[in-house]
Design a protein that fits this description.
By secondary structure, the chain is an all-alpha fold. The chain has ten helices and no strands. The chain binds a DNA duplex (21 and 21 nucleotides) through α3 and α6. Keywords: DNA-binding, Nucleus, Repeat, Transcription, Transcription regulation. It is found in: Nucleus.
Length: about 220
DNA sequence: AAACGGATCAACCGCGTACTG
DNA sequence: CCAGTACGCGGTTGATCCGTT
């Protein structure tokens, strides 16, 4: 025979933890440490399964947890680690004392992915969105002698390729493409220009594509 | 003030691996 | 070595919050 079953599923509580449950689990672990999660709820007087207790401790109750928003430096590091490791959240979290894999995973899915799309980057590959087919076509079509830098050739061609039928901005990807084009145009006018991102989708949704192709307009 | 929709995040689910007898 | 289970991980869900209409 192998190990004993994890827990009796019948009669166990599920859903959000109460203050009382948190207190019981916290007190028990601080006094006894963690040997076996299966027996923790029994000894701590909790109607939860060991798995649930483990998750609650790791993600919420651990005293060494660092709470609060992620800093710019942390976000940059997450992006770099994700480029190397992929979705191995526990490996990534190991580089951030006080942060949990769940926290980093949530932050990635809700914020960083969007930020990368704003920057015109594919969050899965970390490469520019649509790079391959657009670059190939760009190189062919610019044999007519236009004097543009390679990244302007790239972004301007993307705008032509990706512009929607109704001219209306309708997705994060749309914004990413336009931001790239707009950024490159402003850079060419003013080398010290730094791209800023809009704070809110509502700041920009519903705008027309042509607004972003006017280099005289500052964005945000 | 109410309804709605999007964002956030805690918690659950299911699977692969490690472990035990 | 095998069967059966605990553990850990990544993906997903759903409750709640918050801003907008």
């Amino acid at each position: 025979m192998g190990r004993q079953p994890c827990c009796e599923k019948n009669g166990l509580r599920r859903g959000p933890w109460t203050l009382d449950e948190d207190h019981k689990l916290m007190t028990f672990i601080l006094n006894n440490g963690i040997q076996c999660w299966r027996i923790v709820p029994k000894l701590a007087g909790l109607m939860r399964c060991g798995k649930s207790c483990r998750l609650r401790w790791i993600n919420y109750l651990r005293p060494d947890l660092k709470r609060g928003a992620f800093t710019e430096a942390e976000e940059d590091m997450i992006i770099q680690l994700h480029a190397r490791l992929g979705n191995r959240w526990s490996k990534i979290a190991a580089q951030f004392p006080g942060r949990t894999d769940n926290e980093i995973k949530n932050h990635w899915n809700t914020r960083i992915k969007k930020k990368m799309k704003f920057m015109g980057l594919d969050p899965r590959t970390h490469h520019p969105i649509g790079q391959h087919h657009n670059l190939d076509q760009t190189i062919k079509r610019n044999h007519n002698g236009e004097s543009t830098s390679s990244h302007n050739m790239f972004s301007n061609q993307m705008i032509k390729e990706e512009k929607p039928e109704n001219d209306q901005i309708s997705s994060i990807e749309d914004i990413g493409l336009m931001m790239m084009s707009h950024n490159h145009q402003l850079e060419s006018l003013n080398p010290s220009f730094e791209l800023e991102f809009p704070q809110n989708w509502n700041d920009i949704s519903g705008l027309q594509w042509d607004v972003f192709n006017d280099p005289g307009l500052g964005f945000h």
